[in-house]
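Service request form, structural biology core

Requester: graduate student, group of Dr. S.
Request type: structure prediction, single chain
Budget code: on file
Notes: please return the result as structure tokens.

Sequence provided:
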Amino acid sequence: DESPRPAQTKTGVDGVPQLVAGGEPFRILIAEDQLPNRLLLRTLLTKAGFEVVEAENGKLAVEKWRETQPDLIFMDNDMPFMTGMEATRAIIEEAGTTGKADPTIVFLSAYAIESYRQEALAAGCVDYLTKPFEKRGLFEMIAKHSPVQYC
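Core staff response, request fulfilled:
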């Protein structure tokens, strides 16, 4: 059969795509209160070659954003001290008043309800990813909203 085949993405450990070497480090903030969820995201993202920063509540997410200026944020909602929606609004507002680049925030939620998705987008998120997610969907979401390239 001589028909063209779809391009394949080279994957590394456990089917995780690898970032193209030699680029600037790409930092991702994971704002998630549930340790198993943070560990899963951290494992997948570090295997791919991303720098990872973690926050276990919304208030800490805002502080970590200030300190590290991540390239992308995965924001859960149901967290102590400040919800993900509140943290998103605080980050967007502060970025606007300080002249910092608009943060790229992807809302990460177990709620697959359209009204909830619309609320996250209205708060300033660029996209919405539901849990549980597939590895491929996670890495496609990152590529959709950033200049990263995989091998």
